[in-house]
Prior knowledge:
2 domains; alpha/beta; 10 strands; 3-stranded antiparallel beta sheet; disordered N terminus; D-Maltodextrin-Binding Protein, domain 2
Amino acid sequence: MKALLASLPLALTLSALPTQAMAAPECGSVTIADMNWNSASFMAHLDQFILEKAYNCHTELVPGDSVPTSTSMIEKGEPDIAPELWTNSSKAQLDKGVEEGRLRYAGQVLSQGGEEGFWVPQYMVDEYPELATIEGVRQHADLFEHPEYDDRSAFYSCPAGWVCQITAGHLFNALELEEAGFEQVDPGSGAALAGSLAKAYDRKEPWFGYYWAPTPVMGKYEMVKVDFGTGVDLKHYRNCTTQADCTTPKVTMYPSAPVHTITTSGFAKRAPAAYKYIAGRSLTNPQMSAILAWMEENQADGEYAMEHFLLNYPEVWRNWLPKAETQKLQQAVDQL
């Protein structure tokens, strides 16, 4: 009996430990969607590494794609995190998930959003500063030689069948570029469009056309987005510029496309510190484009790109984390 009584304080102390541990915030198991495009796969591997090394989460990457992933998050509560979703195409569905308390817009993984526009090379603007505006492009139309016709100037448009073919075509007409001597050139494919820009840039030749960011091309070549001088008319863009049957297109700059990180509400509630990291980290388009260019040049996958980023961009990721988590992550990065 004396032995039993003597052991009670120790037993009571030990029995209190699990309760104290449960009271502390725990990250637990986290599933992350590894999407099938380079920037999203890079972000998935980056989040996985940081959540494991800095926040002691147990993570798993699961295959993902935009619509199936968002649907699964709403209906099944998994995966916990979709690091990169271009939300314009599924906004209604995502908004409903948020209203029902199933999802959260954690933050914008691309701080500037997806970017579209009409572009010219930086070296052309260095020689002719007025080319940074559409009026300057019109005035110097003769610089942009057409690949087939001597009496026309070339505007490289979006490939046929892509949504951006509609918007680029409407803006080409609204800007009265045909009257200025331009003709739309259909490159035939995304690869051919990139190839036309790369060829011109390597030879320091003129180029004028549609492109978007972040992309490897924008990471490799310094380009200037031409200013239409109008700002963004979002209502007209949505109701007319994007519609094939729009007969009265007006001039408007392209609005940015929101690119969010989406999480389940369950993850946000059970792992608030990890959620705060997810909600706070983001990259600019030039940063992401540079990473994508490096991936293309090195034929690197998302995991390899993650290591490259952590080793070479400490000034970026160190701003995402509190001091203690930064130290943990640095120790892990030092071992890569």
